[in-house]
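Bumping with the actual sequence this time:
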Amino acid sequence: MRIVIVGGGFAGINFAKQLAGKQGVEIILIDRNNYHFFPPLLYQVATSFIEPSNISYPFRKMFQNKGNIYFHYGSLVQINSTAKNIETTSGKFDYDILVLAMGTETNFFGMANVEKNALPMKNIDDALHIRNHLLIQLEKATRIHDSSERQKLLTVVIAGGGPTGVEVSGMLAEMSKKIVYKDYPEFKDHQLDIYLIDAADKLLGSMSQKSQKEALATLSKLGVNIKLGISVKDYDNGKVVLSDGTTIETATLIWASGVMGRKAPGLPTESIGRGRRVMVDGYNKVIGVEGIYALGDLCYQTADTNYPNGHPQLAQVAIQQGLLLASNILKTQVGKPMKSFSYKDKGSMAIIAKFKAVVDLPKGFFKGFLAWLTWLFIHIIPLVGFGNKAKVLYNWFWSFFTNDPTLRLIIRPEEDDK
């Protein structure tokens, strides 16, 4: 049996690993990158805190000595469900079972200028682009004497008050207070002017009220300008236009405000739901086609009685779905019935600033240094490879205790420089 997986994120990787070495099963994993990466830590790459290699791992090294798993570098072009094959940017593959786990992409809500000018943060490329951009704006600011133009370069707007927006804001605020003045004596009396904007009336909307209040209080104390109940409507010529009619002059708009499912060309219309997510039944089988399953952030499942409006787009959902689908496929091979998916909520967490985090558990809430340590180790455990875990742990503690990481490097292709 040949199983083709499109997407090597949490869902795809856990599904593939569960089937490693199983007799009678051939796995082909297809991804647009040649590496797996850990999205929860992208913001630390974007803010020069850790290296991208600390949160990335090559698929081919991961699958060494896994005799039945093969990697293919490419992107999905077309699904041919009748012929049971897919077309990619670099080849065509037949399948017995197709597993779609491509995840999501940034949703700009139809705002062309925002899509053109804002900085998304969905992958390693995005994170490195943000790192370069932020450092370049600081370099430009050292050469500008006009106070209003300099302030425009030193102003950062983050759209989206979820975990990513909160974590980026907190990291940049810490950077502003403890690093910028040392690196840039040209404007030692100036700090970054950071705005965090969200259309909702609270930060961390998916977390508890205690977490929301803690995030608001901590970021406000750090000097972040928080604007709630307001959304971004446009961004052009260095000016962010807000829904209340006000504007913010800035050279940097980081977009962490929404996602939508990646396209799955070839699936019937009735298989696609809101947010371009793929509709699946309780076993993650795509509705309307045979032999195709969808996992993780890409899928929309309403069969779980505890989540009738679909599951949250979290790593734990993707991991649990990947593991269960692999188990179900092995069951069908020996004539056993499949088990329907039921999400087991293990809690959620967000880091806000140095030594400050919030953790929501099914039976409680805690914050502060203990929550920060919990966040630290929970995010190290899933990293692939002992070397990555050791490097991240060392870099984290060194950077946090010295307040002076050494990764503020502008590295980009020569064409960009020109």
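The tokens above came from a reply further down the thread. The CA atoms of residues 15 and 99 lie 9 Å apart.
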